[in-house]
């Protein structure tokens, strides 16, 4: 009897490292949890009661919409073959044979020891959380219909460009700009786009801005905790391997975050005489953001310095500059995304140009020999150039997308004045806390009480005081 010819095991190809694959899927799941439920419940707890459902739903919708766009065209635009110096050639990743192959980033000449399907999902959760973060600047007045259109357009025209340019093998990648895990691609872009988008949408009602009190502080803290711990996957997954550098990135992430939270809390204590839990959450977020571009390429002492800076400079930006400059009064950035993500992301990108070590860069397979501490002072210049590109691109394209939605598609960017007064019940027909309905009404269907008529919006008082603060541009949207 002839001996059968041995064939490759399709369940265990030579390139597959099961440990790397398991860690990559775990890291991706941790990042996904940061969006749903992490930021969903952080937003729901941080806003007024009447906006809890809409705020969480904006995050929920973005997560789903980004995934479908991602697998049909956006992944390859961000990580596929080069089409232009700043973007790849778009296309689908829905063929089983392709999904089972080894993951490669062709323009960056990078190969990973896990399948393409794992890479696609890992990169998707980063794209999704970028839109979810941006939503924090629009809460409390953006039309949900406009948001539904904005998400795929911004993903396509802005996110993919930043991702390809810095990670996928584009021109900033080739120049050696360091963005370990998204300080520029995710946080600087979402912070910039959120601020610009908030301008075009217009402000919330004056009463909403003046009475911005979290409806559930413990819920907000729960979301913040998920965000912090989930960041272990956010930064720990970017070496594309369960490597020593992944461990260093996780440790540095937590060191910087803890330091940033403590500095922010101390500043609150010194200047406001009380430690604020909301302030502590902001300090936590700025620490997470600032260490992101640097996590695996700086030493522990570098993480501490970055944490000191991220706990103080964004604090000054939010609590001093944010209250003195007229621009921050005109542009209503609901959750301060500009300060916590744009400022902190740019800060981290600048500091990695100083504190990146030669050992860390080598462990992450970067061609650059390190930052200014290694005698490579020009790295700071390249980091600034990368930041300028991301900021400029997002200012232009976020503005164009908003104007396209408003004037070409004829979709209002802003809710009606009546919806702004009522909130969730008018927009979705649902409320965040409905315990009273259990006793007062018949059983509901999908959150809607069949025994009650549609809300009579005209019956709701509409005093000039409540509507004050809605500018003419917002009304015309």
From TrEMBL:
Coiled coil: none
Transmembrane feature ranges: 22-44, 56-75, 120-139, 146-168, 180-201, 213-231, 251-270, 277-295, 301-321, 342-368, 380-405
Renumbered residue ranges of the record's region Disordered: 447-477
Protein's organism: Lepidopterella palustris CBS 459.81
GO MF: ammonium channel activity
Source taxonomy: Eukaryota, Fungi, Dikarya, Ascomycota, Pezizomycotina
Name of the protein in question: Ammonium transporter
Transport in keyword set: yes
Bilayer topology: Multi-pass membrane protein
Subcellular location: Cell membrane; Membrane
GO cellular component entries: plasma membrane
């Amino acid at each position: 009897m002839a001996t059968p010819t041995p064939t490759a095991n399709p369940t265990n190809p030579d390139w597959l490292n099961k440990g790397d694959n398991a860690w990559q899927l775990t890291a991706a799941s941790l990042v996904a949890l940061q969006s749903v439920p992490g930021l969903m419940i952080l937003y729901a707890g941080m806003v007024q009661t009447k906006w809890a459902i809409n705020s969480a739903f904006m995050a929920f919708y973005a997560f789903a919409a980004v995934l479908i766009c991602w697998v049909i065209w956006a992944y390859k635009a961000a990580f596929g073959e080069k089409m232009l110096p700043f973007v790849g050639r778009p296309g689908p990743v829905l063929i089983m044979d392709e999904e089972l192959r080894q993951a490669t980033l062709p323009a960056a000449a990078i190969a990973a020891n896990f399948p393409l399907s794992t890479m696609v999902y890992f990169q998707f959760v980063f794209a999704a959380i970028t839109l979810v973060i941006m939503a924090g600047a629009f809460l409390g007045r953006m039309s949900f219909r406009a948001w539904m259109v904005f998400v795929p357009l911004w993903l396509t025209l802005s996110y993919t460009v930043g991702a390809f340019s810095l990670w996928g093998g584009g021109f900033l990648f080739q120049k050696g700009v360091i963005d370990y895990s998204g300080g520029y691609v995710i946080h600087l872009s979402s912070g910039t786009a959120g601020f610009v988008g908030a301008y075009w949408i217009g402000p919330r009602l004056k009463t909403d801005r003046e009475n911005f009190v979290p409806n559930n502080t413990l819920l907000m803290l729960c979301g913040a905790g998920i965000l912090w711990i989930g960041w272990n996957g956010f930064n720990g997954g970017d070496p594309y391997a369960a490597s020593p550098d992944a461990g260093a990135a996780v440790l540095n992430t937590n060191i910087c975050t803890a330091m940033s939270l403590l500095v922010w809390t101390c500043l609150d204590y010194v200047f406001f005489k009380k430690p604020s839990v909301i302030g502590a959450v902001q300090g936590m977020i700025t620490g997470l953001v600032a260490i992101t571009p640097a996590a695996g390429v700086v030493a522990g002492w570098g993480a501490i310095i970055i944490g000191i800076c991220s706990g103080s400079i964004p604090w000054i930006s939010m609590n001093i500059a944010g209250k003195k400059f007229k621009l921050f009064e005109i542009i209503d950035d609901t959750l301060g995304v500009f300060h916590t993500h744009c400022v902190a992301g740019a800060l981290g990108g600048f500091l990695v140009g100083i504190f990146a070590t030669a050992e860390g860069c080598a462990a992450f397979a970067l061609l650059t020999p390190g930052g200014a501490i290694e005698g490579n002072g020009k790295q700071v210049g390249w980091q600034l150039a990368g930041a300028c590109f991301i900021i400029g691109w997002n200012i232009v394209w976020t503005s164009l997308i908003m104007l396209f939605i408003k004037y070409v598609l004829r979709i209002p960017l802003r809710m009606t004045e009546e919806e702004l007064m009522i909130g969730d019940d008018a927009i979705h027909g649902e409320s965040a806390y409905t315990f009273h309905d259990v006793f007062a009404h018949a059983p509901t269907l999908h959150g809607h009480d069949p025994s009650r008529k549609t809300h009579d919006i005209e019956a709701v008082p509409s005093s000039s005081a409540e509507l004050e603060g809605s500018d003419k541009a917002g009304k015309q949207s």
